[in-house]
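Before surveying the methods themselves, we first show a specimen of the format, giving the amino acid sequence and backbone structure tokens:

:::
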Amino acid sequence: MNNVYLRNSVRFILLILLQVLVLDNINFRGYLNPYIYIMFILLLPFETPDWFILVSSFLVGFGVDLFSNTMGMHTAASVFIGFCRPGVLRFISSTRDYEQGMTPSIRDLGISWFLKYSIIIVLLHHIVFFYLEVFSFHEFFYTFWRVIISTIFTVIFIVIGQYLFYKKK
């Protein structure tokens, strides 16, 4: 069990550092903004209590906000997906039951399940984040286009991260 805490603590720190030092500097004409730190919330084990997911979501969002000067937008979007995560998991439940120690990952549940799960969570995050950023529906479709493009690239980065850093059982 200590291994789970250590792995998640290291993942927490590394994803925040990767986000603020590398990925925050990627911006292609205002459209492409990959947010890989969401992976921390995505990969919390199934048996994680809901209150802990919300606290962890707050902390990871606050950590990114602290270094990105985004005034709470990452925190709000992260807490929102932390709140939605249990419902999304129930919505796309796999055919086999979740077992003790399983994580929502490609390794444990397969690429098809993980893509559905990550696309929904990342899309929810990006909708909240980008519409909070503009705080207006004035350019609704421009912002929606940014949400879609950033969601695609964020999910691609997350899937690549899954294949790079997680071995098959």
Summary: The chain is about 70% helix and 0% strand. The chain has one domain: 2-165. The helical segments are 2-21, 38-42, 50-68, 73-91, 106-109, 111-134, 140-165.
